[in-house]
Write a structure and sequence with these properties.
2 domains; about 45% helix; 11 helices; 10-stranded mixed beta sheet; about 270 residues; 10 strands; alpha/beta; Rossmann fold
Amino acid sequence: MKSVKISLAGDLGSGKSTVGKLLAARFGAEVYSTGTIQRAIALEMGMTTLQLNQYMETHPEIDGKIDDGLRALEGTEKNLVIDSRMAWHFVPSSFSVYMAADPYVSAARIMNAGRESEPFASVEEAAASVAERRKSEMFRYSHLYGVNIKDTENYNYVIDTSYISPERVAECIAAHYEKYAAGGSFLRYDVCPARLLPCGVREGEPAFFEKDGFYCIASGEEEIAARIRAGEELISLKKVQGSDALAAACTQERVAAWQGETGIRPARLPFAK
């Protein structure tokens, strides 16, 4: 029987550690976490995780050591859940998952975790640090490997974890892994309704695009609204290229009408409330 290999990448604070443990219990797998390794290095060196990320920009030997450990996992027959930004790249046989989360939800989770290497006084401070860490990581991985870790087309499945429980996230990942292992097909993106912004395109296949961290509906608003009213926690969508003009069509009036239609107000808005 083929071993289970699921790799988890994603936004900082998207819940990878918690979900990884739940998946490991589900599949009888071991958890391999490069984040845990990195936080231990930061504490050993007397640095925050942000400081270590910035240090690693000019000290690639640390990345090299971590990456060698990842490469070795490709040939193992163990059942593994791999929590790592680069596992999709170094363990290509794994079912690769990207866990997305709203930046302020991520920041609140990181602050509330109370890790020694990630001390913050406020959600705003945590959000600023998360943004700097992500910028540092993107620079590092682009420079070292020529990859964009935020390009969600690198992954088999992308799930927005912003407003659902870790148990529900793990359940969705497990179900999609089992479909994948059986040769089945599915839409790559599952998005929380509260992150979707209406832009006025009522007909067509349900689809969205990302603009400055916001999720804008590109088409199919009528069907998406019906699915939200039916109580779907996640909306399965196609991701497409958007435009500034379409994003600008998300107005306060349109959001108010959307709230009336669906019962949900988007959690964050690209304009003043």
